Amino acid sequence: MDPVTVVLILFVAALVLFATEWLRVDVTALLLLSALLLFGLTTPKDAFANFGSDTVLTIASLFILTRALLRTGVIEDMGNALARRARNAGGMARGLLSVVAGLSAFTSNTATTAVFLPLVVGLSRRAQLPPSRLLMPLAYASILGGTITVIGTTTNLVVSGALPRYHIRPLGFFELAWVGLPVALIGLAYLFFVAPRLLPEREAELAEGSQRPYLAELTVQPESVLAGQTLRDSGLGRDHGLTVVAIRQGEQLLHGPDAGRQLHSGDVLVLEGSSERLLAGKDTLGLVSKPEQKLRQVLSGTSERPGDVRLVEAVVLPRSRLLGRTLRESRFRERYGASVLALHRRNRVSERLARTRVQVGDVLLLQGPADRLSSLGEDLTVLDDLTERHPDRRKARLALLLFLGAVVIGASGLLPLGVSVLVAVALTFAFQVLTPEEGYQAIEWPVLVLVACMLTFGGAFEASGAAKVIIGVVAGVVKPLGAYGLLTALFVVTVALTQPMSNQAAALVMLPLAIGISAQLGYDPRPFIIGITVAASNSFITPLEPSCMLVFGPGRYRFFDFVRVGSGLTLVTLAASVMIIPLVWPFQP
Asked: Which branch of life, at top level (predicted)?
């Protein structure tokens, strides 16, 4: 069979499978690569070389560096700092969305949305607004920011990495900012002033486990920001989502303390809140639990690494030896090698945790070595591992320094971007900011498989002559539209393709077509390359984009909600891009 016919059949079959998702996108990509090899349309050397290309390695490295920022709480702390400084809910929401857009220019859109989701939910509660009014704008802001730099999304990196095979220079680090920044600003204005008229009002629907209320006893440290403040000024409830049940000052236990009560170093606060809120408050406010202090002393004399210490939720089983005994009586830490940081019970515990008698169904928040927590016997069973959700802020500055260093060196051209981020990953592991196991788990392997396979298909698509056939047909149709019409058509088709298929696949499908058609019509291909890159990175019309999927459930959205709000944002993005792109990248070479 003619190679052109085979490639075109494979092209159509891949589009159908990508659009319908009968198979996972990475499985479809692997089948496509297998077909190319079996039909002799590519060599094993060329096919496998793309799995080790600088594009794939750069994307993998950025996944790891982003996880380091999340693991050390850098991004979360930025959001918390903004929330504390905002004067009103409206200003706080706009500030958060602006920060999200700025951060997603350098980190994963999905990761940024995931980190800020609980912050936005907390903000909506304090402002007495349904989360549905804020969560969709959160996802859209993260997507808008991704078009500002070449590392803003994996789509940008994929397009940039594919350009050399067409003898076109890769995208500069901030090249997309000429259009990405204005589009992001215009898009944010849409989210601030237009979207609120279109967004639904529905109450949040969050998983029970994520909001399970725990009771914890935390001691105010001498360096704590709470020392010397009153309860009213501390913002424990307003900013941190924690309820002060009681305060123990010396031998005095004060239940339901007055808001004017001043806090001092050494005070023990009996706090109620979700595990995330308690752990975040403990890290940022200078609070510590006595069991945790003792655990650190024990571990300081061992070879345990930070990555070996886990944080889990465990439920007390019916035949547990703990039943009817206090944690002190059962010698919990000596027996299990773990510390109880907090306890959840349907009815609030009125006594001190150390004096509370354990009941069936109690859920304990435990911290300890991984090997000990994996062998709790018949007394407890682990419900969830929260280690990844609990930032380790001890090396936050180092994580931020390594990330910024990689970005600055790569953007300045002192080293290729792939080299700078790979060196940063090596240093991240060497300084134990992140364990190699955590780093490798952070890599989204399906994305890397998709990118490598589609890069190979792009080469076969061009080498077989199939691209030339399609380009000749399409060029004749769009020639009467002129340069602006061609740019608009390519943008619209790319946006349409990103709805059923992944952004990276849509960009790689459209890239050879845009280059070939523009060249045949006598235009410089670069403005059209920029156009499909921006279009592929901005997917607003359906909730199928990963950032949108994250907020779909918590916001209780419906499919049409995204169509209603996202269609207008897409039109704004299209209009701004078509006006700006030719001013920076002229159509004529």
From this structure: Bacteria
Domain with CATH 3.30.70.1450 in the chain: 209-292, 309-389
pLDDT at 293: 63
Q: Which residues are paired to 343 by β-bridges?
A: 215, 364
Our CA dihedral for 132, 136, 138, 143, rounded to 10 degrees, sits at: 170
Asked if the model's pLDDT at residue 463 lies above 90, the reply is no
Which of 506, 509, 505, 511 minimizes the C-alpha distance to 525?
511
| Both tokens assigned to 91 | 């200003």
Q: What is the DSSP string of 25-50?
A: HHHHHHHHHHHHHHTTSS-HHHHHHG
Note the pLDDT tens digit of each residue in 353-384.
777 888 888 888 888 887 777 777 778 888 77
DSSP H or E stretch at residue 528:
helix 526-537
Q: Which fold has domain 209-292?
A: Alpha-Beta Plaits (3.30.70)
**Confidence category of residue 549, pLDDT binned at 50, 70, 90:** confident
Query: Sorting pLDDT into bands at 50, 70 and 90, what band is 19?
Result: low
pLDDT over threshold 50, residue 306: no
Taking the CA atoms of 113, 114, 115 and 119 in sequence, report the sign of the dihedral they define: positive
Structurally, what CATH architecture does the domain formed by 309-389 represent?
Answer: 2-Layer Sandwich (3.30)
Q: In this structure, are residues 416 and 55 in contact, taking their beta carbons and an 8 Å threshold?
A: no
Are 360 and 317 in contact by the 8 Å Cβ rule? The answer is yes
Contacts of 247 by beta carbon, 8 Å cutoff, 6+ apart: 253, 254, 257, 261, 263, 267, 268, 269, 270
- The total of other beta-carbon atoms located within 10 Å of residue 255's CB is 9
For residues 441 and 64, give the distance between their C-alpha atoms in angstroms, rounded to a whole number.
Answer: 8
Q: What is the pTM of this model?
A: 0.68
> Six-digit token pair at 94?
């706009």
Residue 311 has φ and ψ, to the nearest 5°, of -125, 120
pLDDT, one tens digit per residue, over 429-438 is 999 898 898 8
3-state secondary structure 537-570: HCCCCCCCCHHHHHHHCCCCCCHHHHHHHHHHHH
What's the CA gap between 494 and 83, in Å, rounded?
Answer: 37
Task: Give the burial class of 388: count Cβ atoms within 10 A of its Cβ; 0-12 exposed, 13-18 middle, 19 or more buried.
Answer: middle
What local confidence, expressed as pLDDT, does residue 347 receive? 66
* Residues 70-108 as b or e (16 or more Cβ within 10 Å = b): bbbbbbbbbbbebbeebeeeeebbbbbbbbbbbbbbbbb
